[in-house]
Amino acid sequence: MSTQPYNTALVTGASSGIGAAIVGRLQQAGITVHAVARDKERLAKLADETGCVPHALSVADHAAIAALAEEIEIDVLVNNAGQSRTGNITNTTPDDIDALVDVNLRAVLHLTNLVVPGMIRRDRGHIVNISSIAGHYAFAGGNTVYHATKAGVHSLSQQLRCDLYGSHIRVTEISPARVETEVFGRLIGDMAEAKRRFFDEYDSLLPVDIANSVAFAVLAPPRMNVSFMEVLPTMQVVGGLNFAKKKPDAA
């Protein structure tokens, strides 16, 4: 007999990759998962495969998200939806800035704000935020706005633990490094090229690895809160010391 206290979960960004893997894993654990994403056809396929409850909507649509949060009682919220872009702050467009902030951070804040009061009333719940190592480390080639939004998710996760002190509501941040997903293909516009460039010669994480990390935290005994988990491929490290050489004096 299961001792886990949760009956329902809501997973955003659920139609593919990490989100779809999380949906399947939590369904396997006996939790009814409400899967949120924009792609109606993929959600329908996921529902057929896993038994999840599909909701085809955008996390940036606050009215639709608010209506959904009012309709269902959510025990586990997995904030997984996210976007990225190429480039850095010098060549990022205003539209890209708005899109990244809207999906990666504003939607996470709004959804958490909508769901947490019910968890407090029931004194039961779990917030799982999927962030990124980009939120903790600076490295060349990363999109500045993406890094900033993921740093915001990291800060939110830490502050939520303070806000919820004394309750039985758990907060987990899972921070992955490179995971083999379609995101890389969308970034450069060619999944085959992305596979060649980022994955063929590297032993990257798979979406199931992150799903299993989520399940470990969610299915842990109620006395135990996995507050932060950084998940990297064995062969990938973060950090390092780069030192640019002096430029020759201009003639």
From TrEMBL:
One Pfam family of this protein, by short name? adh_short
Give this protein's Gene Ontology molecular function annotations: oxidoreductase activity, acting on the CH-OH group of donors, NAD or NADP as acceptor
SUPFAM superfamilies linked to this entry:
NAD(P)-binding Rossmann-fold domains
Q: Which domain of life is it from?
A: Bacteria
Q: Return the InterPro entries for the record.
A: NAD(P)-bd_dom_sf, SDR_fam
Q: Cite the entry's keywords alphabetically.
A: Oxidoreductase
Question: Which family does the entry's similarity section mention?
Answer: Belongs to the short-chain dehydrogenases/reductases (SDR) family.
According to UniProt, the name of this protein is SDR family oxidoreductase
Species of origin reads: Gluconacetobacter asukensis
